[in-house]
Amino acid sequence: MAAAVDEDEIDNDDYYSLLNVRREATQDELKSSYRRLCMLYHPDKHRDPELKKQAEQLFNLVHQAYEVLSDPQSRAIYDIYGKRGLDVEGWEVVERKRTPVEIREEFERLQREREERRLQQRTNPKGTISVGVDATDLFDHYEEEYEDMPAGGFPHVEINRMHISQSIEAPLTTSDTAILSGSLSTHNGNGGGSITLAMRRVTSAKGWGEVEFGAGDSHGPVFGMKIFRNLTQRCFLTAQCGMQVSSRGVRPGVTTVLARHLDKNTIGYLQWRWGTQSSMNTSVVRDTKTSHFTLAVQLGIPHTFMMMSYQYKFQDDDQTKIKGSVKAGFFGTVVEYGAETKISRHSVLGATVSIGVPQGVSLKIKLNRASQTYFFPVHLTDQLLPSAVFYATVGPLLFYLAMQRLVIKPYLSNQREQELEKQREGASSETAKKKQEAESAVLLMQESVRRIIEAEESKLGLIILNAWYGKFVTDNSRKHERAKVIDVTVPLQCLVKDSKLILTEACKSGLPGFYDPCVGEEKSLKVLYQFRGVLHQVLSRDTEALRIPKQSHRIDADT
Questions:
Q1: Distance set, CA 80 to CA 7, 63, 89, 90 (Å)
Q2: Averaged over 112-117, what is the pLDDT?
Q3: What is the residue-wise DSSP string for 318-338?
Q4: Torsion over CA: 424, 429, 432, 438 (sign)
Q5: In this structure, what DSSP letter does residue 500 have?
Q6: 3-state class of 476 per DSSP?
Q7: Residues in domain J (predicted)?
Q8: Which band of pLDDT confidence, cut at 50, 70 and 90, is reported for residue 115?
Q9: So what's the pLDDT on residue 240?
Q10: Which secondary structure element, helix H or strand E, spans residue 443, and what is its range?
Q11: Which of 211, 199, 267 is nearest to 236 (CA)?
């Protein structure tokens, strides 16, 4: 921003961008940049009334930025609260004489209070809908059964089970929360439901406790208690006990889990369960930025098994993951493989193929939308048929690729365009104002730039030949898009000092003579410059620090 701006519109980074200094800049760095800009914008250096007026506005803004950033207390408030934090009226957030450390501590306290107020208004709903589909008739039918049926005898596909569950949280105090959950299930015409009420209390920073009461038509009343406790920095314990009352009597149950962080990315678990299905389980889980690995062994009645799974995480915008697992035990063996990917800002779609003996082949499709989960297990065959495995693998993949190309990408692209259009409409008047201010700043720089160029040419120093800032279209697939750039050759040459140009890690639209030509879109800075008579060129991201000249920017004379 290159001129006077309404105080409420200034972002936290504007003062730093205006002075072109780091957020960690020392007093000497601030003073050096301030003096340089004062020499450039001093009103007495311009005779033209209009230029003199623009210079006075820029001079006052630079002076205001320096006053704020050079004072430790004001700078601490500005870093945390932005420009509004510096307004005395209506802001009783901190005492102005406190140290920066005390100001930050006060800010953290206020943040906690705001979080507690938000907590009181949050119910955090979570839900799951599961629909089981029996499609075994697609692969396990007998042809002669359909010979006499009308319409060619289409295979019969039916929904044989359904499960719906929902829970909400109601914060009562900062440490007490009530949780209400319920579920409904049906399987082959028989169904039932249950409802559970739990009360959770955070006892300290190290743990919490929970008591619950539940009832349903298929089971009697259930009473339970659960506790969580951090034993050490690397070890924690979860214990749960319950008691179910039914026509067969009282059935108690106890579950304990002891976990320990083996290293930064690995946790080991020991689990013991006593009750209707007693078992002992041990597992190791390793989760890194690129992978997730689990190894588990369980000894129990009726289930004893060994399981190993691995998940690879691609480092792409869609957060794609591929996974595979093997599970073998008294029940048989199951091999699963699948993938999941992000299809929108709040939605993740996944598909898993399950191949087991004696379970057969199944396809499991899952959609996570915010805090809601939709699960569709499709049972294809009770036998290990290659055709079922093939269609379970290829079918969802082809369907996803078609939907991605024909529906998802066009929809997301349209949504992004609508959001950008709204941003442009909201910022159109402000952008026009910034553009005018930037053009005025460039006029003020002309004389200084002429002197800088003369000095640099005399010693074969740094000359900015051309510089553009904005959105560049370099991808062939985006040729239809229009580049949106502005010429910033003069503002950059004005920042050259001793044959060097240094830009900090901040949005460059805040530099003098710059403005944002494409609000809401990714921007870059492209510079063609000459140093020691040799051409150089560099393309830098908007918030990336830039230092020139550099040998790596040199343009090979042979190319």
A1: 16, 21, 17, 17
A2: 64
A3: T--EEEEEEEEETTEEEEEEE
A4: negative
A5: B
A6: helix
A7: 14-82
A8: low
A9: 94
A10: helix 409-458
A11: 267
